[in-house]
Amino acid sequence: xxxxxxxxxxxxxxxxxxxxxxxxxxxxxxxxxxxxxxxxxxxxxxxxxxxxxxxxxxxxxxxxxxxxxxxxxxxxxxxxxxxxxxxxxxxxxxxxxxxxxxxxxxxxxxxxxxxxxxxxxxxxxxxxxxxxxxxxxxxxxxxxxxxxxxxxxxxxxxxxxxxxxxxxxxxxxxxxxxxxxxxxxxxxxxxxxxxxxxxxxxxxxxxxxxxxxxxxxxxxxxxxxxxxxxxxxxxxxxxxxxxxxxxxxxxxxxxxxxxxxxxxxxxxxxxxxxxxxxxxxxxxxxxxxxxxxxxxxxxxxxxxxxxxxxxxxxxxxxxxxxxxxxxxxxxxxxxxxxxxxxxxxxxxxxxxxxxxxxxxxxxxxxxxxxxxxxxxxxxxxxxxxxxxxxxxxxxxxxxxxxxxxxxxxxxxxxxxxxxxxxxxxxxxxxxxxxxxxxxxxxxxxxxxxxxxxxxxxxxxxxxxxxxxxxxxxxxxxxxxxxxxxxxxxxxxxxxxxxxxxxxxxxxxxxxxxxxxxxx
Amino acid sequence: xxxxxxxxxxxxxxxxxxxxxxxxxxxxxxxxxxxxxxxxxxxxxxxxxxxxxxxxxxxxxxxxxxxxxxxxxxxxxxxxxxxxxxxxxxxxxxxxxxxxxxxxxxxxxxxxxxxxxxxxxxxxxxxxxxxxxxxxxxxxxxxxxxxxxxxxxxxxxxxxxxxxxxxxxxxxxxxxxxxxxxxxxxxxxxxxxxxxxxxxxxxxxxxxxxxxxxxxxxxxxxxxxxxxxxxxxxxxxxxxxxxxxxxxxxxxxxxxxxxxxxxxxxxxxxxxxxxxxxxxxxxxxxxxxxxxxxxxxxxxxxxxxxxxxxxxxxxxxxxxxxxxxxxxxxxxxxxxxxxxxxxxxxxxxxxxxxxxxxxxxxxxxxxxxxxxxxxxxxxxxxxxxxxxxxxxxxxxxxxxxxxxxxxxxxxxxxxxxxxxxxxxxxxxxxxxxxxxxxxxxxxxxxxxxxxxxxxxxxxxxxxxxxxxxxxxxxxxxxxxxxxxxxxxxxxxxxxxxxx
Amino acid sequence: xxxxxxxxxxxxxxxxxxxxxxxxxxxxxxxxxxxxxxxxxxxxxxxxxxxxxxxxxxxxxxxxxxxxxxxxxxxxxxxxxxxxxxxxxxxxxxxxxxxxx
Lengths: 519, 499, 101
Known about the structure:
The complex is a heterotrimer. Chain A is mainly α. In chain A, 73% of the residues lie in helices and 3% in strands. A two-stranded antiparallel sheet of chain A has the order 1-2. The radius of gyration of chain A is 22 Å and the shape is globular. The two termini of chain A are 43 Å apart. In chain A, 63% of the residues are buried. Chain B is 77% helix and 1% strand. Chain B contains 21 helices and two strands. Chain B starts with 9 loop residues before the first helix and ends with a helix. Chain C has a single domain, classed as Helix Hairpins. Chain C has helices at residues 5-25, 29-53, 58-88. Chains in contact: A-B, B-C. Chain A binds chain B through residues 68-72, 75, 111, 114, 139-140, 143-144, 146-147, 150-151, 154-155, 161-162, 165-166, 169-170, 173-174, 177, 180-181, 184-185, 188, and chain B through 374-375, 378, 389, 394-396, 400, 404-405, 407-408, 411-412, 414, 422, 426, 429-430, 433-434, 437-438, 441, 444-446, 482-483, 486, 490.
């Protein structure tokens, strides 16, 4: 059993162990859950470490492949997993955030066993999705994630949790039906006679190679494209919608503020830190490599959507008085940078977008933890009812300010690199109108600074609100749940090279795919 | 083919003998001591099912009995096992349910075994006369079962609705059979397949035959609850006792599909093989019905506050998905239908097992009254949730794979009709997800009202516990370990297509 | 004039139509039941006629089966209708609407 398989199924083992915990000893579930997340973190770190040494001429490491479903003919679904730098990096992020979220989950008192079982199942789905190299397997893991998330929001969430949970579920399901339809159409196209495809019709590496080989001659759907020229475009956009819902991209974002606001703190952390990354990851792994030509044609629309997300998210965040809702909308805004970077199809843009995936994971995770800490004390999140926390909770205020400045994109903190490179790449974007879009998108930066600085001023500066007089500073657990995210924020802010190094091979191969077609 | 070979029908003989023994015991025992009847029925069904499995192992191609009017192949064996398991699960549920009823225990079990016997015959039908008799054996037993709660006006009303519409459908079916007979001069299904009926059916001269096939489909459409013959379903599902509803939703529906597949294979198969233009118009007709059925069932279910009624509508929706497989009309489509039904077996019976237990406690079928089930009865809540999600088609549960195979078979047709049908089907999936989730939400996210009837259910009988566990495991196994069940379904579909 | 298959078919069609009309228009459950019986017997006439004029004997035997089944069906239906009568003291199918939605 490879370390990757172990990382995927360790949560399941933990979950089964929790199911055997007796009702009277529900606290044990907490211990098991936390220990499992530590094990998961270790496994994920090992997996990521392996990605630094991908042997020459090999795209993935820790690959394992076993036949899962054989429906005869070419319809063979494999349990095919493996990681490259991109997925390795995101799996590391998953492990890191799972520990932080597990620490933050210690305050959950209601149905403890159920909570931890769902918490672990969620991680199985997430790591499985990142590791899948088979489209069908990817889809299955993608859906496995949905249910625990639905329960985690719906059972342990805030007052409007049920509405938020169903909205989240239906939005994602709506998208994923397009994904499944796309997978099936690709399967039928490449296995039809005369397609010239020899690999496995579900294997992502095989299909990517095929897409490269078919450059300029109709792409992987050239069979259909000759008679129905709209099919590749339709499949591309169908899959795009599936992932865009997760990212989330305007206009598919409306589930996000609801889900974030209602979810308990650790679940918000995972939602913002990991689940949103899955959208971007899906685009990079499946959507774009399979249809590089359509990507080139659609770059303008994708860039525009990214730009709208950035500006719109920032403007709406500015109007919020709820701290958590503000952070939630800032996620919409910040994930827009990724789209901007993708659309540019330049190496800088890709670098920036991928950096943004990782850094937004740590920074937004941190921000949600910060919000959670103050909510635990005040039992409200109204920005206008805080004030002067700097003097009562100095450690907390310092950490929060670092997180906020990182999110604004202050040089020296990790958020800067993603934004900077995305914009730099986007400005050189290969599609017409790239410059105008980039300029408009930079407006988002100004708004971002505005609402974040206002939040700092209202919460941490000024006169201490009498209601906040008695707030204790961070305790040990709270300190250590934020620290693992603070370290990479500063570390990769000063020295992003480690991060860039790990996924560089992916960007290079992606650029060859795009360049050969686009040029 | 022309021998009597009556030993081949041993499972049916066993069922008949045990039914007679049960009938005898029933007449000899006072009304409150019907354990003997129950035992006879249990033994009969178990032995018959095991015998069918053994027959399946020793089977070589297709064997005939009763001078060619009864056939046994992989397809029939698979369905006999499905029907046997269904009957066992239903009997476990009825044992639990009958504890709340003071009389009629013997009759209830007898009717169950008669219906099961009808289903076993249905799986082996080779001519229209057997088809009609076997179908009526099931249907008449179900009329009685539906109206079984004599003190409950809703049950009687359900019985009336079922019998009026059911008898109407039987009349249409019979007229259809008469026309088919008039056109071909034979009641045997395989004669229909080989008599050049295909040429007739494809041309104007075959009007009699076409009309006959159409009427037959009407009659069978009623059994499977396809639009526009679905009106009885929600009422009957709501009015009948829960074990009966479970039996209806699995046994009766599967029996309807067995016959539909056999008739479609015999009537339309040769036509599709010879590539006649009429084949596509029949396909379009079935596609239209499938689409309407999916939409009607799923949209109707959205507004239901009664769980059994909701399941009634959802069962209409599932009939639509199964019809999609019929529309695909090839090996892949038939395989998909068989897999779907296997998955449906564990899924829907698991759901109904929970419904029976909860109803015993709360005396209610309202969805709202399931609030707090997750807290009071975690295991039942788990089974119900997994069942509902599998019905909705969430991977990696059994129901997902059934739906997936159906969609694969339909999309592979590659026609505009097929694509539109797939689109309608996906819309149905999203809609169905909504109303299933509304139930799940009640279970876990709403608290039971103070002093409400919801509390921990104790004293679940052993067979009932076994049903719950088998269904739960089945839901996961058929989603994860697809291969063995897939090959069963493929063999059965090949046997069906071989004729 | 000799009696050919079309006469039988005509009679059966007429009977079937009368039966359908009865089922659709009658509100009394017994009336509905009679309509259904007419339809079944119309189909029976068809079976026997086809058997007599074209095929073998099997459809005539089938018709006997159908008669038996129709009798069983009628017995069950009447029993259920009686139950409804006990509860409601009428057998109007239109008024059987406790179950709806």
